[in-house]
Amino acid sequence: MYLKLLEFDPFKETSCSWFDAWWMFGIKDGFDIVIGNPPYGVPLSANEKAVFKKHYISTNTTKAFKGSIDSYTIFIEKGFILLRQNGNLHFIIPISITSSESVSSLHNLLESNCKQIQVSSYSVRPQPVFENAVVNTSILFFTKTNTKNESILSTKMYRKNTDFNLQHLVDNLEFIDVKNYTLIGRYPKISYQIEKNILDKVFKCQTKIRNLVKENGKSIFYRTTGGRYYKVVTNYPTGSTKEKPIRLEGKYSNSVGAILSSNLFFWFYQIFSNNLDLKLYEIEEFGIPTIKLDNTIISKLERTYEEYLKDIEKNSNIRKTKKYANIDSFKEYKIGKSKNLIDAIDDIICPLYGLTKEEIKFIKEYEIEFRLQTED
Is the Cβ–Cβ distance between 250 and 217 less than 8 Å? Predict the structure, then answer.
């Protein structure tokens, strides 16, 4: 068996072909195991990008898939190339492997050649799961079978709490097959059958938020970053520099604003996002049960949403800061203090999706031990 801890530099290799498995190790048909913790976000010159796009499939964007020029994705493809058939790759990488359109080309490469793919994910908040990790991370494992993918095994996002035991976590990782629950460039970070059941019901909605987008519609506003365990979604601008509007069909705009403020959408965001940024794609892919949103339900939902917005403003404060060059203060929201009203929104919307009492309870209590901690 040939074992190689990755020390190669694909950047150097593309400019001078010094890395040759036969020349360096006497190996003609690839390694059995490739293990590594590749660099991410390495700055690349225009010439370097051009070279990588010439040599690496996953860097190229097509009509169907988007390519990534991030150094860690290039290392993944290089590791894949270095494997012999039935060889295994294990990498510790950024969590964006589960949550970005730009890795869809890489996903396609792996899903076309690896019978099984496994991804486990770990948060840096509230404390890093791995002592020296400063970003949300995933551990990627796959076997190069040169056959079509049959299963994609994923875990929930693991977080470190007060009684955290790393060895116990490693010994008890909970994987579940999410092959039929993916979005473009996204593998859901879930571990339980109940989550697949909920996703079935959200995906079943034929109307997605993208279908309600209207150029001259009524705006709701969402923050692209910030909000560790809650998302700020309002029907008015709050003045945040990280705020973006989305224009929706007037009849449904406030209802959608309420739904995006719910525990149900927060769970959906958490499992498909990088747990830092809220992207428009993640909003637009969320299903809305418009067929069940009659005038009575809409009125009830709008009243609850209005009460919720008043409450988050009441609990907000102006926070002074010296962290940013362009601002000296910002409005800080303590959304956790309005959890009872968020739950009330879920009481209205979850039955519309067909969620059971058990599923509603799961959604309301999702990451509750972290979400009710003091927000900073």
Answer: yes
